[in-house]
Structure formats: C-alpha cells, structure tokens
Amino acid sequence: MTVWIQAPRVAEAAPKSPVEILGTLPQPDPEVPDQPFNIAAIDPVSQRMFGMYAKSGPHMVGPVTTGPEYTTYLVEYDLRPRVPTFVAKRPLLNGTADASPLKSAVDLAGKRLFFTAPGDSILDSALYSVGIGPDAAPVKKWTMTEKLPGYFIGGITYSAEDNRIYAVGEMSTTVLGQQWGYQRKPAGMVSTVAAFSPDDGSLLWAKPVPECNQPLWTMGLGALIARSSPKLGRNELLFTCAAGSTGSSGNDNFPNQPGVVELAISPTATAADAALFDLQFHPVAGTYFDGGANGIASYDYGSDRLFVQSLSSTTPNAWVFDARLGTWVGSITSPDDTNYIYGLNQTTGHYYMGGGSEDKKFLLITDGRATPPQNGVVLGPDFAPSGLIVADPTSDRMFVPMGDLGRTKYRVLRDLTESVRPEAVADYDSLTDDIPEATDTYISFSGDAAGFGTRVSALGDTANVVGFVPRGRDALRPESRGVVLGRVPTVTVQPAGAAAAAQQAGLDTTSTEAAKRNAVPWNYPSETCLDGGSTEPAEPTGSADSAQVKCALKEYEGTAVARHAGAAGAGLAVGESVVNATVKRTVKDGMRTHSVARSSGIGIDVPGAGRLEIGSVEVTAATVAHGRRGTASAEWTRTLRGVVVKDAKGAVVLDSPGCTTKVRHDGHKLERSGDSLACEQLAEAVRRALQTRVRLFFPDAAVHATPKGAFAGIGQSAADFAKEVTLNDQGKLFGGDTTTRRAVPAVQVDIYNDSAERSRTIVQFAGVENTSVFTVNRNPDEPPCHTGGCIPGGSDGLPAETASGPDGTSGGLDASSDLGTSAAGSGVAQGVRGDGLGGRPSAGTELAGLIVTRRGLGEGLLMAAFIVLLGSAVGGVTRRRRLTSVLTAR
Question: Whole-model pTM?
Fold first, then answer.
C-alpha cells in the first residue's frame, strides 16, 4: 500500500496554490455525525493516529460513578490512505478528557499512549497509560493525590531515551477554578517540573522552579514541555513561562518576566540530583494569555527550536528560540493579535499559525527552520482553522479543524509550500590561488574595524525612559533610546580607497532628530575622512582627546580614535570610554587590523538588589590575512580588573581582582588561554547577588582564520548576534548602523523589566569587530578579479618601512599612552579544533559561519562614503525603574 511520505522540497517555481485539499476526516461516531473530537497523538511507525471524544450516556467503563454521565472514547485512524480512514473506537474512561499533543505522548516501543486528565475529581490531576495496538493493555490511572499531592499537571512528554514521563505544572489545585471563575489567571503558586515512571507512575523527582512565574498553559490544550533531541548534545527540558494576568484585555500582564526555561537534567536523576539541576532563563516580551484560555508554545525536535506566540495587540508574533544556539533567533509576524492557534510538522519543520475573527480569519504557513525565520504565506478565511492544527510527521499533510464551534470536522490539507534554501556561507579561501604575492599576480583585499567604549540601549516601554529633549518642546515618541560613548562606526581600507569615522558620543536616531527640530546643540560632532586617491599627504583630522580620523590610500591605511570621559546618569557612571582602530595593508603581512577598546570607572546601581562596580574592561583584537596558506590569524584578549558587588545595604558581597580571556586562531586550530573559568564564575556570582532580572554576561568572541590565508575575523558569535539583532535592536538604533555589524562587547549587563512589550536596558562595554580579507590570483579574468576589483601584486609602491610596527598598529593614532597594550593573562593554552564561528559548542550549522562578513571586496568603501553619523541632541540614557541613582566612578 502506498505511504504518503513527502520530503522537504526546494522547487524552481512555487506551486499555483500553497495547499491542496484532500478531503475530510471521517467522524468517529456514526451515531453522532457532528461529534467533536480531538486528535491526541500520532504513531509514525504503525501509521496510526489517535484521538479522544466524550459522549453523554451511561458509563461504559467499570462501575457507574457519581457525577455527569460521560464516557471518553479512544479513536484510531489509519494514516496510510490519502484521507485517513476510521479504524476503531473503544471506551477509555468514565468522565471527560481533553486530548491534545501537549497533554499526551506515545511510547512507540511499548505501544502505550500517555495522557493527563482529571483524576478522582475536577481539582485532582492524574496521569493515564493506555495500550495501543492489537494487544492493547488496560487503562492505568495514577492520581497526583497519591503521587505528588497538590500538583496540577499542565503538560507532559515522554522520553524514550530516558524511559520517563516528564511533566510541567504548578503546586496548586485551583488553576481551573481561577480560569473558569475569573477568566484570567494571576501568578502561579510554585511552578514545578516532575519526572514519573511510565510503568507504575511513581514519582522519580520533582523540581520547583521559582524563576518561572507560571508555566504557559492553555485551557483544553495544556502546557508545553519538551525533552531536547539527541542532536542538541545536552540533556534538557524546555518549557515556557508567562506573567500572570487579571482583567479582560490581552495586554494587562502581571509585572513578571515571560521567557523560556532550559533545565539541564540527568536521564537517571534521583530526587537528590534534581536539587542540583542547572537552569537558564531566557527572557522575552509578550502577552501570552487571552481571556485565560490561550497560551501557545510548541517545540520542533528536528531543529530544537521552540516557538511561543505572543498575543500582543501591538506586536503579535511567534518568537523563535533556538536551543542549539541557546538564544532567540527571530520572530514570525502574525497578521493580527488573535493568533491563538498553531501547528508544527516535525518532519519538514513547517510552522502553522491561525486565528482571526469574522472576515479576518487566516492561516499562516512558514518554514520554522529557516534562518532568519520567515513570515511565510497567509491564506484567507476559507482555510482558517478553528482549533489546534495537527501535522502528520510521516507526510506533508495537516489536519485542520473547521467550523464555528471548533474541532467539529478536520479538513485534510497538503502543505505544498517550499522549504527555505539555507544561505550560502562566504568561502574566501576558494577565491585565492594559495601563492605568494608577487609582481605577476593580482590581489584584492579588504580590511575593516569598528568598535565602541560604552553602548547603552533603553528598549521598549518609554514610560521607563527619560527623554533627551527638555519638557515643553516636542514630546518624544514612544521609541527606544540609546547612547554610545567612544564610537568608531568603521575604518576600512580597500584598493579603491580608505575611509574612517569616529565620534566622541552619539545618540539614537530618534533623539537626534528631535534635538535637531528643537535646535538643541550637541557638542560631539563626528569626524569622517575618505581618500579615494589623493596625492596630498594624509593628515589626521579632529582631536585625539575626543575624535580623530586619518585616511591615506597611498599608504593603504585608515585609523580612528574616539574618547569620552566622565559620563554619569541616573544609576550608571563610566569614567572613560575609548576605542582606537587601525586598518593597514603592509608588505610583510598583507591586510592587518588592530583595535583596542576600553571602559573604566564603571558603576551600576540596581534598586533593591545592590551595586556593581568594575575598575576597567579592556579588549585588544588583531587580524592578519595575506592570501596564502598559513598567513591568516586572529587574536582577541579581554582583561577585566577590579570587580566589586555590594548588596542593597552597601555591604561588599564580592570583591574580585578580575579575569583574563585570550582566544587565538592560526588558520588551523583555536587556542584559549587565561582564566576564562574565573570570568564565568564571576558572572554567576553577580547574577546570584543581583537577582534574576539583572544578568551579567561575558560574551566570547568568535575568532576565526581560514587555512589558505584569505580571511581572518573577530566578532560576535552566531548565537549572540542572533539574540541582539532579534531582541535588542542591534544595528537599528543608532544612525549609520547596520544589522551586518557585529562588534562583540567584552562585558554586557542586561536589566529586564519586560511585560506585554519590551522594557529593558542593555549596557555593553569595550566592543570590537575586525576582519581582514586578502586574495592572491594568477589570472585577472577569474573570480574575484573578473569584476575589476583586483590590482597588480607585489609591493604596489608600498614603502618597506610601513610594514607593521612593534605593536602591530603601523603607527596608528595615539589614543592614550597605555591604550596600545593589554595586561596578559596567565594560563596554559589549550588547543581545540576550530569549527567556524558558531555559538555553543554543540550548536547546529544553521547559523554557523554567519560571522564571516557578507561585505564583498568592493562594498566597504561605498558604505563608508555614505556614513551618516549623529548630529546633535543632549543628555544621556536613563531608565527610571532600573537605574535610579547618580553614580561616580571608582
């Protein structure tokens, strides 16, 4: 018999229609033609689908009990025909049970279906096990009154690797009463994850999770809990948390932080082990309840991506969290804020979102594994679902409930939309002939550097942001705000020219425009230079005490320095912010970049939690590439000095001399040295001291050099880049920015106050980004020379003495007497294989390599020529709720 299995396709032309209608599922009860039923689970091995429905009448299972006379039936369908056929039904239990993939799971090997439903009463939660197949085992019931008293199960999953049932819920039996009685659910009691034996229902361990205000739960559908796939490389449980809510609108959240929890587990853990499980919380803004009934999340085991649908009235969407990278990687925009329906195909990774009212009903189809996530195609009311969409993991079919009453009949559709082709990663080594540069060769090169001393972004809820324009003038619109202290947007050198820009301090574009309209002076003008072939000797412009640039195409050199001293606002102070960057082509090394960024005298107050003080943060970064095997290298060093944490009473709870991290790539392997572990221990200590809404990060730079010497780069990892662009508006807030820039900060402090929309402050210190590209070719008519971007090889008139100086900066601008050096850390280098510039060590390849610059060899100069930097505005960035006291530098 034909099995309808379809692999993901990438077609040359899109099909005429994104879906094909195959028919309608037969109803499970011939006596009741319109009998509603819910699909619970699919067994892809036996090609069977199981559902449940409740029918009134005399009890059909065991003795007659008190209460409403309903019997829940288990129904079975054969998936092999194009339109699945009804196979059988049998009584399951007395009473009613709502079925959904969130509240049920299949043990394929044991031929068992597990589900959760009320136990001996409506307030009692229970686990059930029922056999499926020819030799079906009888129903087993394990009530939480016996196993874990007071525990309400929101959702379950079964792990074949662990042979355990995992549940997420909370220690409160009043969940249903809160939803039915008040239509809204306030904060939960104690969110709890538990593991049960699938054989006898015994409790193996329970783990309270106070960091989670309450699991995201949908009445009738349940709560998501997912066991990570083996491809993740780590044993984790993932679930979503939401803020409580009261009232009737969809944007009146409790003041708590929504997000996703990653709970690291052991497959054989005991109750004692559970207390030591590591937990990571990943905040995200949004509204996740609507009338107390809708909170939508799902998990794709093929990509380890979690989707959570925000019902925000202003920004409805589905946030996408990538567990392999450990970060949010994008969002899928919803047509409106009634996006309370979802579906997911575990084979193709296609994601479905539905909702709407009256003539605005819709069905959205997209490739959930695309990077970045796509908005997909939207179908109108004729295809809009009325309930949870269940996708067939053995094919490209989906079962879409239709009808105003919901789940009345399932229409069978084929999803004909295309999977997104992964974006190709730049391979510069393929463009070089791996030969020495000589007069009979042709070369192309590009060097780029950028950085900042301190960058502050106040994002979202502007009720927490003090505007930059005096009261009485134009009121600022409710948009994000930011300030950069010591900023070098770019220094670039290519055969066609050299360009650079620097600014002592700059504001976000909204504040800048408001200040211009109100004629408010801004005393930090930008300095820029562009040399496309001048015969005059290049001289620096600006002042080394504030902002200075130099562009010299004759010497193939660009330099920039920016310095700002003595910045203090409500709750934040920085003594000095400096960045110095040099890009230069040399006879000896080819294309070389060198950057130093530093922030010192840092103080951050967190009301009710304490104060963080950092003496100095400094980063040095250097890249070299000369287009021949063994000539590319990249090195990044972070040095942190003098870290003090004080509690809310001013008592010192942590006093650390600091830490050093050094990362070097020589084109073949990655080496790490210094005391990186001390940095991570320091970050964890600060997190504990300053509570969950304040996070201290030490981002690791992605450091890479290619074997044949064509490319060397330093910047954000793929995971950090995805997170900052997706959640924190990186590349969008400041004039002249672009989302392709990815300067990696040495230290980052995130202060969260999210609700329906974002309300957070992101403070970053000492950020740098460096890239060197160099190719050497024999033939001027082959790539990359075929577009005219190459020049003759050899010294090309470069004087030999312009080869790199002692510090590798080739005589760059002097920012300070000690800025060109950095204290070296101690430790033994540990060689590891370089695996590109991805995020976590176990990350997949979806985002790997994205740090490799997409800028072609001829683009940098064009971009630099059109740089528009900030003009004028006043003030600084403050956040009223999170940063409240004026600090002074240490």
Answer: 0.77
